[in-house]
């Protein structure tokens, strides 16, 4: 009898796990997380790079919806203004600032941006730095990559991001708190055929930020490295989808689900119709 109960319980457990896995778009990380914790971001200053479209735009909306004060950065100022207006129409009470920034523009200009970000909201420096910007990801074989593509990818994804981090971290250290959230990629964990340079840049980011965490964890600074799989992100009218090539099916609709449902749980992610966002 006991044996039967144990087998039945195992089946129920397995079935529950499978349902959770399916609802989380095949992503066990999502299954282990509950809904967003409003109390952790409400009133906090969140600076997001790459906020003019795609994942950055959705993150900006979600942080604003949770009551954070949001700073939007990217190169395209008019797209940032569009994102700001849309957020304000979604959340009229939200505090949103636009801070145009080119991560490839060198230390002096990034330093200026950091100073501005630190002073945009009175008596509140940056609490969360969301490193989300990245150079476009054209599919190109490793040996076909151009010098120009190599430099642009490394300048934006790695050098600019690290420079921004090292210029902002001292402010956070002075306050004894801060959180770097790094939008890396599954391509930063495993081979990404056709995207060797992009993959190399994400591996570099992972190496830097995991090391940074080990240096700063006891000083109140947190580091979260996110490594998502492919996601379709054609939110802006004039920008094409940037889902990473190869594994486009599972996971491709995560952003859509997150935008519409405020979480990534949806049966439609796995079993829904194939359509562009
Ligand atoms: N989509 C996916 O399948 C996927 C999967 C895993 C990880 N990721 C990562 O998630 C992040 C966002 O991806 P996404 O698909 O949303 O990207 P996206 O749509 O291509 O957007 C990239 C963002 O980065 C900004 N950007 C580009 N060059 C910049 C520069 N020099 N200085 C400052 N900002 C710059 C762009 O704005 P401007 O052009 O206005 O500067 C844009 O806002 C990236 O780090 C990406 O590697 C994406």
UniProtKB/TrEMBL annotation:
Gene3D superfamilies: NAD(P)-binding Rossmann-like Domain
Coiled coil: none
Entry annotated with the keyword Signal: yes
Signal peptide coordinates: 1-24
SUPFAM superfamilies: NAD(P)-binding Rossmann-fold domains
InterPro entries: KR_dom, NAD(P)-bd_dom_sf, Sc_DH/Rdtase_CS, SDR_fam
Keywords, alphabetical: Signal
Keyword Transferase carried by entry: no
Domain called Ketoreductase: residue spans: 44-234
Source superkingdom: Eukaryota
GO cellular component assignments: membrane
Pfam families (UniProt xref): adh_short
Alphabetical list of SMART domains matching this protein: PKS_KR
Name of the molecule in the record: Ketoreductase domain-containing protein
């Amino acid at each position: 009898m006991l044996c039967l109960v144990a087998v039945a319980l195992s089946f129920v457990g397995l079935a529950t796990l499978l349902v959770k896995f399916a609802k989380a778009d095949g992503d066990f990380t999502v299954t282990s997380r509950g809904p967003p914790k409003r109390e952790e971001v409400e009133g906090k200053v969140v600076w997001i790079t790459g906020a003019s479209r795609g994942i950055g735009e959705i993150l900006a909306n979600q942080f604003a919806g949770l009551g954070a004060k949001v700073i939007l950065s990217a190169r395209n100022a008019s797209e940032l203004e569009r994102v700001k207006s849309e957020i304000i129409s979604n959340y009229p009470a939200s505090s949103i600032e636009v801070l145009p920034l080119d991560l490839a523009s060198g230390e002096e200009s990034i330093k200026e941006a950091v100073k501005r970000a630190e002073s945009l909201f009175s008596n509140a420096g940056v609490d969360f730095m969301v490193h989300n910007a990245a150079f476009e990801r054209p599919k190109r074989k490793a040996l076909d990559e151009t010098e120009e593509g190599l430099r642009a990818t490394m300048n934006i994804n790695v050098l600019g991001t690290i420079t921004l981090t090292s210029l902002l971290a001292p402010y956070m250290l002075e306050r004894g708190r801060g959180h770097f959230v790094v939008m890396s990629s599954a391509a930063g964990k495993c081979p990404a055929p056709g995207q060797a340079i992009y993959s190399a840049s994400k591996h570099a980011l992972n190496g830097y930020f995991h090391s940074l965490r080990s240096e700063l964890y006891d000083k109140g600074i947190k580091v979260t490295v996110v490594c998502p799989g492919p996601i379709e992100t054609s939110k802006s009218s004039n920008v094409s989808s940037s889902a990473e090539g190869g594994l486009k099916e599972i996971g491709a609709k995560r952003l859509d689900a997150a935008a519409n449902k405020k979480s990534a749980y949806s049966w439609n992610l796995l079993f829904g119709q194939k359509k562009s966002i």
